[in-house]
Amino acid sequence: MLRPFTLHRPETAEAACALLARLGEDAAPYAGGTELLLLMKLGLLRPPHLVDVKRVSGFGDIADGPRLTIGATVTHRTLERSPLVRARCPLVASVARHVANVRVRNVGTVGGNLAFADPHSDLATLFLTLDATVELVSPRGRRELSLAEFVRGPWETARRPDELLASVRLAPWPVGTGAAYVKFGVHERPTLGIAVAVSLDGAGGRARVADARVAIGCVSPRPARVEVAEARLNGVAAAELDDVSGAAADAAAASVDPADDLHGSAEYKREMVAVFVRRALRVAAARARGAEPSATFPYAVVA
Amino acid sequence: MAGGQALERIRVVVNGSSRELEVASHALLLDVLRDTLDLKGAKRSCDTQVCGACTVLVDGQAVSACTYLAVEADGRAVLTVEGLADGESLDPLQRAFLDAGAVQCGFCTSGMLLTARALLRDNTAPSREDVLHYLRGSLCRCTGYRKIVEAIMTAAGGSR
Fold this sequence. Notes:
The structure holds two protein chains of two kinds. The radius of gyration of chain A is 20 Å and the shape is globular. Chain A folds into two domains: 1-172, 2-Layer Sandwich (Uridine Diphospho-n-acetylenolpyruvylglucosamine Reductase, domain 3), CATH 3.30.465.10; 178-302, CO dehydrogenase flavoprotein, C-terminal domain (Enolase-like, domain 1, 2-Layer Sandwich), CATH 3.30.390. The model of chain A has no long low-confidence stretch (mean pLDDT 96). Helix content of chain A is 35%, strand content 24%. In chain A, helix 10 runs antiparallel to helix 11 and helix 11 (241-255) runs antiparallel to helix 12. Chain A is of the alpha+beta class. Chain B is of the alpha+beta class. In chain B, 33% of the residues lie in helices and 17% in strands. Chain B has helices spanning 29-36, 92-100, 109-122, 128-135, 146-159; strands spanning 7-14, 17-24, 55-58, 61-64, 77-79. In chain B, strand 3 and strand 4 form a beta hairpin. The radius of gyration of chain B is 16 Å and the shape is globular. The termini of chain B are far apart. Classes of the chains: A alpha+beta, B alpha+beta. The A-B interface holds A 1-7, 33-34, 37-38, 41, 48-50, 77, 97, 100-104, 106-107, 188 and B 1, 3-6, 8, 24-28, 31, 47-50, 52, 55, 61-64, 67-69, 71, 115, 118, 133-134, 136-138.
């Protein structure tokens, strides 16, 4: 059961932000409700006002450009099926296909997922490897923040009470980049999410890693890129990538800040980071070489 | 508007019949279906969008009625398990579930049927893997899924 609230349905970002500014802490932005309504049913959140942002014009759009702009109220289902997303950021569409379950994907939104900042978000981890930025709108104007600055910690973001997340912008990888997202776990939410991307420079035997990206989610208080692992990979010859991926994975495991919880002990999670970063890198390396490995791991999804 | 208790008038096509309802903003679709319309097929179980027992279709897409505001269904078509059969004639999925013995206690069955209906609308020739992918988040604690998957594959084959 939900406690009563007043539902507002503004049709412009200006009207929505004006409502948030006027109602302050009494209002919560609402889109798919897949996260918010759960906390409201538990009584952990009791907002007297919900501001539905699904009718705000422009928030449901996906637009191409130097970067791919995804509106806040685009659902996971739309993300999975969008021809534009499939063409420009195919791994994003593949990962969207595996978010939670079909019911959540049908109503849950990209903006809601990011703004809720659940540390077990698939999209936040993946988007970090696409140099994502978020656009925030308020009565004071617009500002753009990197996703890393936006997500501050578990369920905590840099969004101010009168601001709305309007869109997220992704910088697609260059053609020929091999990438993979691997998530592992037996619960509804993943225990571990790993996103990697490897761009090669040069052809055949002379190919080297020009740009490696590794992001880890679910394990630390917030998802993060792992620069020590990326540094291990950059400049490595493509032929040696499989060997070096073990050292990069160990460096990644040393960098995380896990806690004991229902998903497992901190020690276990650290070990799984080493295992799955190595596996994800090998899948990405094979894809960078134009191969599609038939990688299946127990209790894991490879996108 | 005191206390946010104002009622909103919504128009919903439920199992093919147009209904005009007055619902509170905070009313969940599951409670309106079960308590106002007396349609008990959708079940409240986990109440957190994990199990699938409350699955209904809104404009053909599966949603968790336990975590979906009734006002969101305004202007849309809702299908519950009670609307699957055409009079006395069972839906091919229902027939296939019976033939395969895909039902034990029955608590998950309405959600399974509707999830499968949504799958076959999206994909008329699903692979076994497609079926398993779509059923993620639809929990059955009796059957081990094998017969449910078999039934859906049979119904898909029959409707091709």
